[in-house]
Amino acid sequence: MKKNLKLGRIEILLAAILLLVFAYQVTLGIFGNSITFDEPSYLAGGMNILRNSDYRFNSEAVVIPQLIEALPAALSKNVSFPAPGQKSAYEQWNFAEKYIYKTGNDADFILYSARFMVLLFGLFAGLAVYAWSRRLFGVKSALVSLFFFSFSPSILAHSGIAASDMITSFFFLTSLCTVWYMMEKINLLSALAASLSLSMLFLSKYSAFFFILIFIILAAFRIFSRRPLAIDIFKIRKTIDSRALKLFSFLCCGIVHAIVIFVMIWTFYSFRYSMTNFETSRDVTKFLWSRIPDDSSVSRVIKFAADKHILPEAYLYGFVYTYTHSANRNAFLNGSYSKNGWWYFFPYAFLVKTNPGLLVVLLFAAFVFIKRRNLFYKIIPFLIFIAVYMFFAMTGKMNIGHRHILPIYPMLFILVGLAGTFIDFKRKRIPSILTLMVCAATPFSTLSISPHYLAYFNFIAGGPSNGYKHLVDSSLDWGQGISSLKSYLDKDAPRRNNVYFSQFGSVPFSSLGLDAMGLPSYFPFEGRRIFNFHGGLYCISATMYQLVYYPEFAAWIPEADIYYKNIYPELKKIFEDKAHTYEGKNYRLYRNYRQLSFGKIILYLHETKRKPDAMPGYSILVFDLSDDEVRNALSSPSKPIRK
Description:
Blueprint: H1 2-5, H2 9-32, H3 39-52, H4 63-75, H5 92-101, H6 107-137, H7 139-150, H8 153-158, H9 165-184, E1 185-187, H10 188-202, H11 210-224, E2 229-233, E3 236-240, H12 243-268, H13 282-290, H14 297-307, H15 313-325, E4 331-333, E5 336-338, H16 345-353, H17 356-371, H18 376-395, H19 408-416, H20 429-447, H21 482-491, E6 499-502, E7 517-518, E8 536-541, H22 542-545, H23 551-554, H24 558-576, H25 584-607, E9 620-625, H26 627-635
Parallel strand pairs: 1-2, 6-7, 6-8
Antiparallel strand pairs: 2-3, 4-5, 8-9
């Protein structure tokens, strides 16, 4: 066995090449995509913790990802951090923009250094996938697992984004592996490794609480398994077959884990209950808590825990904020809209956003499992994890992004290692050829979309150019396409006097160097600039095109057309005025006109089934509209695209 586990030079070389190829692809994405929706809050939140020991920003994201991503900027003497104002806790987006783009800092350094920190965890995850697949199935299987990991569009995308998804996926993987190892052999090292992994997981994302059920099911499986439990701790060395003793042992381990997690949470929150150490900001935290309703048992339990200071305030508030806001979120799927989601959202997202090669090889792996049932014990923890995680995902109501099931992918890559057992040209020539053919074809699907991995859709959805018809938000359009749009406008776009832009993002496009007339966006980035609607380039983020966050436009009513026609005569004075800004009554009137005009143009594009003239980064739709098309859109009665 030791001989089989010894690393050979060729094996090391092949694994290193795959990891280098992976890192290179992620690097292309790091530099090729503009800042995404959530990244500013992570960068500012982590910096506020490291510089000010202030946990008010982005508390729903938990601290570990923020600390990791903000560390390079915090260590740099050339990065300044403005003092947060008293109200900044609920104005974190404006403050994040100020910190990154308006304080004289090197915005590229702040963003790219954070993304490279996430890339490290992508590499760590790749190594963990390789090591565990090798431990279970051997070298060939490990290389197959690492190969599909290295060319996974979802893994490549989120290994280059400074958010929590990739880091959390890594800690889910290490937690599962260390806990399962501990359930086979309890010693100080295995117990410590499991406790630390679980602590990092609970400090990375609140979905870590799913792992409690996973732990219970794993323990139950081991208790009823005929395999003995080895114990080697302190001076106790024995092998246990009794179910009662196994249960007692796992209960003790669970208690130890809970204590370590509890201590680690307090440690990373500076052993302080309050979110902030600024006395002048305590009213802000009271305001934050006042926004949390008492209409569920979960929120009441959390508020009780807050009253008793059981855990740090920021941790408790972040948990209850995440819970309440995930219960009712606008979502889009294949032309349908919902606030309660669909049970099949994540299975469908997995089907259309996963490389076809992985889907095929998973079938190969399933075939191997059917033929070799003795492998069941080896793969059961991964099957349990996937089943439990998908259960919570499918019964939840927050259907805004495929990224929320990213943690199942490392588990799938390990299971794919089963297909590596096909590769044996002496005894399994045809299966070997088929497996290698699928492997050889897999990179082309991924490389064809580089560096826009987040916008990946496979042939089932019609490819990335049709992705916006199926899924939006962070499944496709997370604000990352502005750099591609800028490049398109500078080099390839037809020359037009008028460029309009509707943005799905958290940083105003003007701060990102894009010059355009602002259409209604997720945040009110339009500014007070007066303009009328004429022919030109209408650049619309895919999420805004589907009106996910403008449901009143999607469900257009005839009265809106009547109001629209009635206000236009009053707007003539505004358009004829040489002043290019507005305020007071004119502000409200023109804002209504601009929003309704945007809604009518989007509905016109849907009704006429107008295809985009360009799709920079596949996440922004560009329509080159003539004056006549715009006139028709605004003068004709609009039809709703949803009821």
